[in-house]
């Protein structure tokens, strides 16, 4: 692993507090916890986890850059799909994990320009720090924006999640010659270490046993993401659940060439694969198995409405029309926008790796974002 940025003394102290909490949990669990629990604590432990503590995560000064941070074109284009859904269902939007608030701001700005603001824009956000940032950015739309501590019992409209599923805790599974094992975390010489325990039954075993995976593979299964989609399905009365994230269908996800899995960590624009490096200071993610997401949704009463690449979705929603509003002759304005659009659309950047899936209830009109470039055969 190449050298990673050296944290400040304050940041290192924060990480040590997070590590101490995880060590206590391991000791209380007789020396072993599943990796899913380690990831949950490292990311979401109140006041200590990466997403719970007040650290700058998004944008050039943070640890990674998301599509809304790259360009306002992303949110403005997504607004066209949102506008269609709002016409078909009740006029509300619920965004899960709004990050810096940039997507909400750009989406609402474009909807306002079109004269079709939602009745309410709800945000479910677990981080108090991010809530504060969102409130400041979304001040122009304050009367319409409401922050939630939990999902509502019932909702109609558009449910939106950009890079939400990849940050949900995953179980790590190792397929061995003598059976299926779950990878967990223990301690050795004061450091966190991998430790495996054989699975013999239960939900995780059944999910792993149902996959066509050769021995020697170590990969992820996100029971949390499946459960989350099931919860959204129970909540949705009418409307669309739209999830944008990086990932694959099942056959690609568990392809033999991807036998070491997809788990990745990000800190200050450095990507690596060591989740034990400074817990609480780095993001830990796994790619999304979109087949599992679609299956969970359908099993809980949702209709499958579309699956495509981010590039096709944005093109279908008219990103080139929005780009064309800036004349090429105005090079100082046009060239940066064109470069941003390339990052969003280029297969070598975000265009192909990122996918968009739509599930819904009571929607019988094709969604504009999936007009061309259908990839449902890959699920």
Compact summary:
This protein has 379 residues and is an alpha/beta fold. It has helices at 9-28, 35-44, 67-70, 72-88, 102-114, 128-137, 203-209, 223-235, 250-253, 290-299, 310-316, 319-324, 331-345; strands at residues 33-34, 92-96, 120-124, 145-148, 155-162, 171-176, 179-188, 191-198, 218-221, 236-248, 264-267, 270-272, 283-285, 288-289, 303-309, 354-361. The model has no long low-confidence stretch (mean pLDDT 94).
Shape: globular
Radius of gyration: 21 Å
Number of domains: 1
Residue stretches low in confidence (pLDDT < 50, at least 5 long) are none
**Number of helix segments?**
13
Reported by name, the CATH topology is Rossmann fold
> What is the CA-CA span between the terminal residues?
33 Å
The CATH architecture: 3-Layer(aba) Sandwich
Order of helices and strands: HEHHHEHEHEEEEEHEHEHEEEEHEHHHE
What is the average of the pLDDT values? Answer: 94
Fraction of residues in helices? Answer: 25-40%
Number of strands: 16
Indicate the structural class. alpha/beta
CATH class: Alpha Beta
Biggest sheet details: 8 strands, mixed
Strand percentage: 15-25%
Offer a few descriptive terms.
single chain; 379 residues; alpha/beta; Rossmann fold; globular
What does this structure look like?
This protein is α/β, with parallel strands linked by helices and 379 residues long. The protein has a single domain, classed as Rossmann fold. The chain is 36% helix and 24% strand. It is built from 13 helices and 16 strands. The strands form 3 sheets. Strands 2, 3, 4, 5, 10, 14, 15 and 16 form an 8-stranded mixed β-sheet that branches. Strands 1, 6, 7, 8 and 9 form a 5-stranded antiparallel β-sheet that branches. A 3-stranded antiparallel β-sheet has the order 12-11-13. Strand 3, helix 6 and strand 4 form a beta-alpha-beta unit. Helix 4 crosses helix 5 and helix 8 runs parallel beside helix 10. It is globular. The mean pLDDT is 94.
